[in-house]
User: Fold this.
Amino acid sequence: MGWAQHNLTAETRDRIARTLFVVQQEDGDWLNGLCPFHDDRTMSFGYNVTNDVFKCFASCTDSGDLVDLWCKVKGYPERSTEGLRAFKREYAQEGLAPAPRKTPGQLRTRLDVKLPGEIPENVFSVMEPVSDAMMGELSRRRGWTRETLDELGVRALSHFRRKANLYETFPIRERDRVAIPIRDEKGVLRNIRVYYPLGKPESAPAKIMSWGKGHGSAMLFPAASTLRDGLVILCEGEADCICARSHGLNAITQTGKPDVWPKSHLNALAGREILLCYDADKPGQAYADKAEKNLTRAGCTVFRLEWPDFMGRENGEWPDDHGQDLTDFFVRHRQGVGEFMTLVGAARERRENARKDVAGTPETSAPDVGFMRFFDSGVNGRLSFREKLLADWLAEHFPMLYHDESGQLYRWEGRFFEPWSVEQLKREAIIALGDEATASRVNGSCSLVLALASMPSGRELDDREDWACLENGMLNLRTLEFIPHDRDFLATVKLGVTWHGEKPPKPERWLRFLGETVQTPEVIMQLQEFIGYSMTRDTTMGKALLLLGPGADGKSKVISIMRALVGQKNCSAVTIAGLEDQFQRASLFRKMLNVGAELSAEATNSEFFKNVVTGDPIQASFKHKDSFEFRPYCKLAYAMNKKPRVLDNSDGFFRRILPVQFKRQFLEDDPTMDNDLESKLMAELDGIFAWAVLGLHRLMKNKRFTSCDETTEFIMKYRRYNNPVMAFVQDQCTLEDGYDEDLKELYKAYKSYCTEGGYKPLNRENFIEELETATRKLREVAVKVYRPRVEGKRPQRVSGISLTSGFTNSL
Assistant:
């Protein structure tokens, strides 16, 4: 701090500083750029306009104030009276500085373009909506959705401009083009891009063009204000951008490809994390090079998507031109958002590895100027580290949510909060600080971040239970309202499907598969309802799914589809026995589905089996963290070759199961076996989801699973299989009002029955208890044990039952 701070305005100090070094970035009070005192290739120099202090983070010179900087650049001795007088002569008149002369480098940095002229709204309002027929083709061949076109305002090109007047239109017959409105941040219509989405006729001059002269300057599409927080996908062209947004991605593009980006574009994206997603050809990669240089100047974190080889790379080279693009990835190769995000993760990892590889080389050993944002000067003018500044920066660039009770950290990835870890957070802090990183700085800042990211008061994770996060938006499973992703949902679970609105694809192969294996229509309806139920966080139905069959019968295919529907990351495979361990119980936290291959006899009597099925609270703990209580909402599904024994002969277990029997085996020599069945079913995943939603709606309407004689009969046989008392009553007894039997004879007959059948008989008291339960299930009226007085004695008798062997004694 010195003479300039006390005698010149902040605006004047700003103007003077810009004449002394090349400013490439503005970050709050800091002007950041290239150091004027050493051969600087990356930003390592900054001047704080408010505090009047400059600093080179490469330490090539001491810090100082604006006068010191001016003197050093102009060649005056440091802190000399001669230099201060020269500075005053040039800038002290009336306390304001004249407009500074800019160096060529500064002119390039501050270059901007004039916005195109405004197009009257009536020019675009005459355009007609895209027809259903065209929409079907756009969905099939471009991967676009009606919702995205409506959101972006895209319409069919039903009118075109006259040559003499750009703003006078006339109707046209062909409906083979779309009109894409290009608006600025205030919503003003600046251009209309005319595009052939389904192929350009040979006679057409261009596949895409602007509305006319004066409207062709490059603009961002859509406006940057429409972007959500988190990662930004920068696409090559409007078509790819619309496809990306139709798949729920946070995408933007430019309507042109300028070598030097306009300042308005850079300011709109400054500081963002941006993934370059240009075409898989050499021109596309060249455009990516230019974009990276421009965005880096704006302080963006930039990294590139590396397309897989099946996108056209041969011998390690991309084609010279007309390569594949983002639309081809989703449409031609039928890849999903999950596969795309896998590529994003790989791109992030490559970027971080590259940064680590070059860390410590001569060109990069100096701290990046970005680190200056975490330092501030005190009253003595000395810079010192501020934990809060780094914490704020981390919270802004990595939007997070911290669940205090479980100690789990989540990071917003543009659609939902995905699990993250404190160690990953610390790694980002270390990368941000570079050579300035210390354990105390990192730990202190990260502790503040966790406090800033704590749960909003009165809210819980995923607490809007009717809503499901899908690949392309948020769907209300009850009303079918569909809206864009939003952080306010606090969603930590994303289902692996895309919503197609009112016209979902029909899962024909899936339906045929169920007809071949499950066969019974009512049982198929029950399965449909359970799969829909498994995509909710509701547990009021209190059912676990049991898929039963001899093997090679399709059970595993159903489990695979269920896992894919809810998302592989949202599944667990904890055995019921494993739930006795508090750490394994934590694996059910925020999970949608828990699958297993067997269900032991002990498991059927497990307290945790009952708690999970009904959503009752359970205690759990992640390792090295305190235990916490939560209500599990994952659904249990088991694929078994045989029925498990049940130790609990009460009605509880049988009330909690939904058995589905698979009735056909597909052996190796079966000519109808389809070896590609699973891949075909996976291709129908979106249609299967819509089918399951119909089942869920039926379940919500009826408030119970569909009634089915086959299921009722199976459970009755299952009870008999599991309960020798019930089997004895069915085989050896008759239940009728007015019948009466001596308990001693009844118990004697029961023990003989157990001996012949290989069962272990119950003692007399337990037999009486089970007899009452079994007869109530068989006849809905329990038998009664009573003691009449007969000839001075009171023998125990049972009313409502008699042995079929002739021991009946009606009273």
